[in-house]
């Protein structure tokens, strides 16, 4: 079969094993290893409470070079003090020694329970098993996509292929994220590989801009995690002329990277804990970008609105009242709202619509809410989902 996993771009191996970090006994520890040092860029959580892996990885990626990624699920190694840092550095040393890689060129990402120490005996054994299992195969890439999951119900993958200067360039990504998801990253991990040859500065620019309009536009529960990490490794083995300026090749690459990030972000929203539908909320004609953002956030952060999504209830009153307290300026007599493509409120008044037909549309897996403020030319959006009984059940039972 055609490889469209993170091992598809030239120069990358992956592995995933069962180290015993998840109570379920599922795959929970993995590696991505490049044949040579890669140009690298990463973005991390904005939470002031950050895990040891995030602190260490921020420092390691500062050079713009990485060659390996270690990841585990089931334990986030967050709020674990100095021992957490020692354990993270020990992981880097073990992987580095085995692969003859500088430990400072290894990124560590962990997700799962907060406040518990990593069981390092299991981790060390897991690393040994993962090193032995490294492969360039699609099976290896697919296994890693499963290993990083926690409360997710399905793996999240994306792939793009483009032509740069007559050379084929591949990009592939995997992600996890289902709960503790909010704008400014989420409890999410994303790993992207590419064989493009690109400068560190432009790779950082492309990832930063892509994350701002994809991963940072997702919310499931307005709760920002301690461990969020998104990283891109570029092996440079595609043979394209190195991208060093913002010309045509850069724009093609940036478009493909944005598509990877957007694809993964949409999958995260659709797989929100207990979600039955994914909803894109868009606000247009705001007075300025800040107020467009305020209006979007007021809608997606409202439990009442999100419960109405779950009930397939076209409750425009909850939406327009959220806009009313958002802080965004608008003329109520110009406010318009569409739900699943149906106008339910126009120029400050409700409009006639077939409630049962619209309710059926809202039972689809994906649909949109569009609010027009009529106050300017700016817009913003967010990917979200409904708030169901399932979300409460999962988070009442899941120990974080």
Secondary structure elements and their pairing?
Elements: E1 12-17, E2 29-44, H1 52-61, E3 65-75, H2 81-99, E4 106-113, H3 120-133, H4 138-147, E5 156-164, E6 167-176, E7 189-194, H5 200-212, E8 229-234, H6 248-270, E9 278-286, H7 289-300, H8 303-310, H9 316-324, E10 336-339, E11 342-346, E12 349-350, H10 355-361, E13 366-372, E14 378-385, H11 389-397
Parallel strand pairs: 3-4, 7-8, 9-13
Antiparallel strand pairs: 1-2, 2-3, 2-8, 5-6, 6-7, 9-14, 10-11, 10-13, 11-12
Describe the structure.
- The protein is of the alpha+beta class and about 400 residues long.
- It has two domains: about 260 residues, L-amino peptidase D-ALA esterase/amidase (4-Layer Sandwich); about 120 residues, Ubiquitin-like (UB roll) (Roll).
- Helix content is about 35%, strand content about 25%.
- It is built from eleven helices and 14 strands.
- The strands form two sheets. Strands 1, 2, 3, 4, 5, 6, 7 and 8 form an eight-stranded mixed β-sheet that branches. It has a six-stranded mixed β-sheet with strand order 12-11-10-13-9-14.
- Helix 2 runs parallel beside helix 3 and helix 7 packs across helix 9.
- The longest helix is centred in the middle third of the chain and has 23 residues.
- The relative contact order is 0.14.
